[in-house]
Amino acid sequence: MNKNIVIFMVAILIFSTLPYINNNNAKHIENGYNWSIETVDYRGKVGRYTSLVLDSKGYPHISYCDIGNYDLKYAYWDGNKWINETVDSEGATGVPTAIALDSHDCPHIAYCDFGHRDLDYAYWDGNEWNITKKVDDDALSHLAIVIDAHDHPHIAYAGYRHHGLKYAYWDGIWHIESVDNDSRVGWYCVGAHSIFFLNGQINIVYACGNELRHAYKDEAGWHIETINTEGKDIGYASSAVDSHGYIHIAYHGWENYDLKYVYWDGSKWNIETVPSEGYIGGSCSLALDSHDYPHIACYRTDSPEENDRDQEYFYWDGNKWNEVVIDSVGYVGGCCDIAIDPNDNPVISYCYWRHFDLKCARKTMNNPPDKPEKIKGIKIGLPGHNYTYSTSTTDQDGDQLYYMFDWGDGTITGWLGPYNGGEVVKASHAWEKNGTYVIRVKTKDIHYSESEWSDPVPVTMPKVMDMRNWLIILVENAFNAIKFLFLFYLF
């Protein structure tokens, strides 16, 4: 064989094995911290209606819904791993949820029964879950919960039959009050953390049609003020109180599909649009750090039809707003909540809509695994036949790794492993129907930090294998055989 041809073919083989470099996939590293993207629960259609709170150790606790079974679920980080459990499976529960912790770090969850349009409530007493069904038999909306100094729950929500803002609290018995009878108060009007205590009084921030309102209760009863009025409806009003006792609010406006930030400076309300482009601000949640700077989690979509989403995070650094894309591969983001840990780092819960997974993003000193190599294996096959695919990756910290293959047909492998870094991992799959499927793989280390998804690989399962498809398969197999022979000859 001609020497130049041999050199040329060897060069092709070498370059074909080099990793693909994509500058758009650079890791976000700030002050030595990396974003750790973690799958908290992937068993079933979970991840909807998340609510997040941190305990006294800074560990996250999340309430959420298994929308496939309409079960209320709860997850928490114990310092080493995620623990998941079902709290309530009676009825169509967990649509939506809100969580708070008491003085003993025990979770209290307010949630709706979608089937009966009821407000339900569950709390952990240190030994078991205690569930109260039908706290109110007229409730269906996003909601918020706060725990008072006596470890008693207070809940804000909207009615179902006539809408309007409602308030439930327990002091030995349950009390139900109507706060605002305006029928425009409905599904999206109460947001994350929108009920709170200020100067010993209960406060609720909420949306009413195109108005942002604030209600508080004193000895004389409920008082309501309108903070802002827009041209179209608003929703997801989320709030926090700073060290001066001033209220901060984030909400989504449908007039321009934007994210708004509102705060009281001691004398007046200040309203601004958080700088961004596109359709942004849905499912927004607000938290403040130790400097009273606002942090907001929300989702961005390319159009009002929401055929794609990104999970976004905005924060104020004292001079300007900063935008971080937390997760953008596939239909991801929303149903989100945010909290700030003792180191002023954000923790965000959200939904990965492709498989309805519960996700959590937080900053850690741990390095996530490197992006896995592009999946290797046959590109054309027959439906109903098993085909094996392989990949590998490494981890900067030398951690053992788990792999999850997404087969593009709505199924995944679950986490396979553990494997050592650099070890080749194989998985097999059979597609039941003809069509073209996009497959990919990701990995996580033993600390639950996940890599990016690998570059996608299209796989076709034609209904009938024609001569062209057979030739492609033959060429692929011949090329792999030649590659092996050349590498064997060279080394």
**Tally of structural domains:** 2
- Terminal-residue CA separation: 18 Å
Decide which structural class fits the backbone.
Answer: mainly beta
What is the name of the CATH architecture of the largest domain?
A: 6 Propeller
In helices, the fraction of residues equals under 10%
Number of helices: 2
Number of strands: 35
Could you characterize what this model shows?
This protein has 491 residues and is mostly beta strands. The protein has two domains: 29-364, Fucose-specific lectin (Neuraminidase), CATH 2.120.10.70; 369-464, Immunoglobulin-like (Sandwich). Helix content is 8%, strand content 48%. It contains two helices and 35 strands. The protein has helices at 3-16, 467-490, and strands spanning 29-30, 33-41, 48-54, 60-66, 71-77, 82-88, 93-101, 107-113, 118-124, 129-136, 144-147, 153-158, 165-170, 174-180, 195-198, 201-208, 211-218, 221-229, 234-241, 247-253, 258-264, 269-273, 279-288, 294-301, 310-316, 321-327, 337-340, 346-352, 357-364, 387-391, 401-406, 416-419, 425-429, 435-445, 457-461. The protein has a five-stranded antiparallel beta sheet with strand order 1-2-29-28-27, with no helix packed on it. A four-stranded antiparallel beta sheet has the order 3-4-5-6, with no helix packed on it. The longest helix is centred in the last third of the chain and has 24 residues, at 467-490. The radius of gyration is 26 Å and the shape is globular. The two termini are 18 Å apart.
